[in-house]
Amino acid sequence: MTTRLSLEDDVRYIKGVGPKKAQILRDVGVSTARDLLDYFPFRIEDFSRVTSIDNVRPGDDVTVQGRVVSVGFVESLRGKALRVGITDGRGIMYLVWYNMPYLYKKFSRGQWVLASGRAEWRRNSIEMAHPIWKESPGAVEVGPIIPVYHGKASLTSSAIHAIISSALSRYGGLIEETLPSTLRERYGLLPEREAYRQIHAPQSPLLWDRARKTFAFREVLHLQIALSLMKKESKALSAGIPFHDLTLPTRFLETLPFRLTRAQARVISEIREEVSAGKAMNRLVQGDVGSGKTVVAMWSLLAAVSSGYQGAFLVPTEVLARQHKRTFERLAGGLTRIGLLVGSLSSREKQKLLEGIASGDIHTVVGTHALLEPEVKWYRLGLVVTDEQHRFGVRQRLTIPEKAGELRPHILVMSATPIPRSLALTLYGDLDISVIDELPEGRKTVTTRVLGSGERAVAYRKVREEVQKGHQAYVVCPLIREGKTGRKAAEMVFEELKDGYLKGLRLGLIHGELSKDALDEEMKRFVEGKTDVLISTTVIEVGVDVENATCMVIEDADSFGLATLHQLRGRVGRGDAPSYCYLIASSAGATSCERLRALERLHDGFSVAELDLEQRGPGQFFGTKQHGLPEIKVQELGITAEIIVKAREEAERILRCLENGDAGCCDAEYSALLEKVRQRFGDLTMYARSR
Ligand code: ADP
Ligand code: MG
Questions:
Q1: How many angstroms separate the CA atoms of 325 and 595, rounded?
Q2: Ligand 1: nearest atom to the Cα of 331
Q3: What's this protein's family per the entry (predicted)?
Q4: What is the whole-number distance in angstroms between the Cα of residue 547 and the centre of ligand 1?
């Protein structure tokens, strides 16, 4: 029997892959030959430049070569260490592996090796711990360039490399060429087949870079095309539920204790236009913390209820679910029957609620991911609002079951993570985007100051002052308990402040490990003004809203990203009083302070996001969680903002071209590309079709 090779072949048929390795590979998301070829190295070891051992200084990242002169073990604090001495005739260096005794048999005297890694001064010699290494037939002029992969368990980088090499020689010829030649020429990209060779077996560092750029471009191009297709198909194929009756949301606005900002009014009218026309809504509302997204969510949920449908309000934490329910009851209590579905309900409470949802007795349900469980049967679900979308994945938020024969619910997602516009169009390419780019009137900017850890007194003096004025404050810490890194833990800070800077004040403590009751109780006490200062981990990050809180101290602020800090800071400055935020930098490093200082100047989330993009690249905005699509290897491939923008433009151009049947566009190539994208993201576009 002859079997035809296919890129979809199971990895276990590839030479060098036994059942055990196949399992590990599956654990890292590799199950076919194609997946294997798409398992990209994140850097290369360049053995093409070999340093002579006598020129190596501790701290250098170098490649050396030498003949093995000794192989033995030494005891060390880190465990038993294999120590292999090598010489190139000009110096001696030791290669060291801790707790990997089985490597012993790989070395024998006289054998030549190339080794690459960081040199250190230990045990009175130059050592290199856990180097990347390779046997070589003898002294070489120019060594190979070896790609380095993320390994897992016994599957080391070099084992992966070996497997991929054999996959490449067997399957390399099957790789489709779907990158249009126009793009290759315009951006200096390689043909795909060549790119696979150069990324896994580079002939030069320069070619490796070009291969990476090729894949970076391809990934974004594919993603963008897939998202555009999803958007188009879901628009074309699914009519939405028309919300005809807007009595309730109108009454809600009339009784609201404030006037909508222009931006809120605009976004509400965008939503109204879509839902009342019976178009299927798939919309992202982006707005800085405090811009008033909840009101927009409530308006929309009431529009569903008013028209005889149910609304689901999905939030990432129980604290937030409870808060939203309270807000709902305060502002629209008489208008809709509201249920709260969270994991910690007793089974009787839950049963009752589920019955209410199934019978349609309960109109609006606020809840955590418990809302997504299959046991929740809706009577007539018309709208799903997801708050703080960045905490969920797309797939997850869409698993709310639909009843056969009924129109699918509208989808509205809210995000307080401002994404630079250039990225939002890619990241959320399947959604329409509404932006609330204005804060309610009278909102003051939060005066922000960066302090060294020696200046904490300044911050806590302010906290006391604010409390004396009748206000409240937050203290935020990165971890719950003292971790190995020495970061301040909420519990420790609490103990310290109680008898120190904040002695005599009423302090509360919350973190994610508290029981639901304890957490609830603490939160309630703070909301009711019964505690002055709430010490917490980032559980307060999402959406907690206490107007009387005017001061925030963030310990170890340099362990957070700027965007997170900005979101945390948004918890204060919600009322009329001036507000303050102190960022305590734990490391004295000037660069980390400098990075934080940007927040002293910048007060809107979009500027903070742009800066984050500039400083740390687009990776942070592209977590898989954000879009829920098959992983895009932003970090491994070094995808830059520029590539994202360019690839998006090209994707749009290609789709336009195909749609209009423009003369002179490379029709055949573009159709092949489209086909390829459908193949790759098939489940997604199918999903778009089915909904
Ligand atoms: P976020 O966008 O961060 O979710 P919220 O919806 O929690 O913000 O709103 C923050 C605060 O601003 C809440 O106390 C809310 O009642 C208030 N608020 C919302 N819209 C307005 C408005 N138009 N005028 C005044 N206050 C508003
Ligand atoms: Mg909110």
A1: 37
A2: 16
A3: Belongs to the helicase family. RecG subfamily.
A4: 10
347's tokens: 């089974």
Largest CA distance in the chain: 89
User: For the domain bounded by 49-141, which CATH number is listed?
Assistant: 2.40.50.140
Sign of dihedral through CA atoms 203, 207, 209, 213? negative
Which bound ligand lies closest to the C-alpha atom of 435?
1
**What pLDDT, on the 0 to 100 scale, is given for residue 517?**
80
Provide the β-strand partners of residue 582.
Answer: 449, 553
pLDDT of residue 398: 52
- Proximal ligand: closest to the CA of 571: 1
The domain limits of the chain are 1-47+144-173, 49-141, 247-277+292-415, 447-602
| pLDDT score, position 689 | 39
User: Of all atoms in ligand 1, which is nearest to the CA of residue 387?
Assistant: 4
Ligand number nearest to the C-alpha of 316: 2
- CA–centroid distance, 295 to ligand 1, in Å, is 7
| Ligand 1, pocket-test mutation among 256, 286, 289, 295, most atoms within 8 A of CB | 295
| Residues with Cβ within 8 Å of residue 475, at least 6 apart in sequence | 463, 493, 497, 533, 534, 535, 536, 552, 553, 554, 555
Query: Same CATH fold, 247-277+292-415 and 49-141?
Result: no
Looking at domain 447-602, what is its CATH homologous superfamily?
Answer: P-loop containing nucleotide triphosphate hydrolases (3.40.50.300)
In angstroms, how far is the first alpha carbon of the chain from the final one?
A: 42
Domain 1-47+144-173 top-level CATH class? mainly alpha
Alpha-carbon gap, residue 244 to 460, rounded angstroms: 54
Structure tokens at 655: 């789709």
| Residue 489, SS3 per DSSP | strand
State in Å: Cα 141 to ligand 2 middle.
62
What is the model's pLDDT at position 194? 96
Cα(295) to centroid of ligand 2, in Å?
A: 9
Helix/strand/coil (H/E/C) assignment for every residue in 394-441: HHHHCCCCCCCCCCCCEEEEEECCCCCHHHHHHHCCCCEEEEECCCCC
CA distance 334 to 331: 8
By CB atoms closer than 10 A (0-12, 13-18, 19+), residue 656 is exposed
Tokens 């809180």 -> residue: 549
Instruction: Supply the residue whose CA is at minimum distance from atom 15 of ligand 1.
Output: 292
Query: Which CATH number applies to 247-277+292-415?
Result: 3.40.50.300
Model pTM score: 0.70
Given the structure tokens 């320069």, which residue do they identify?
A: 206
User: 70 CA to middle of ligand 2, Å?
Assistant: 64
The total number of residues written for the chain in this structure: 691
DSSP class of residue 556 equals T
- Residues lining ligand 1, Cβ inside 6 A: 258-261, 264, 287, 289-295, 416, 440, 543, 545, 574
Q: In the chain, which residues have pLDDT < 70?
A: 1-2, 234-238, 390-405, 479-488, 540-544, 587-590, 620, 622-632, 634-635, 662-666, 682-691
Query: Closest Cα to atom 4, ligand 1: which residue?
Result: 293
CA 376 / ligand 1 centre spacing (Å):
30
List the Cα angle 411/394/329 in 5-degree steps.
45
Name the residue with the closest Cα to ligand 1, atom 5. Answer: 292
User: Which ligand has an atom closest to residue 319 CA?
Assistant: 2
Beta-sheet strands, E only, within 288-404: 310-314, 338-341, 364-367, 381-386
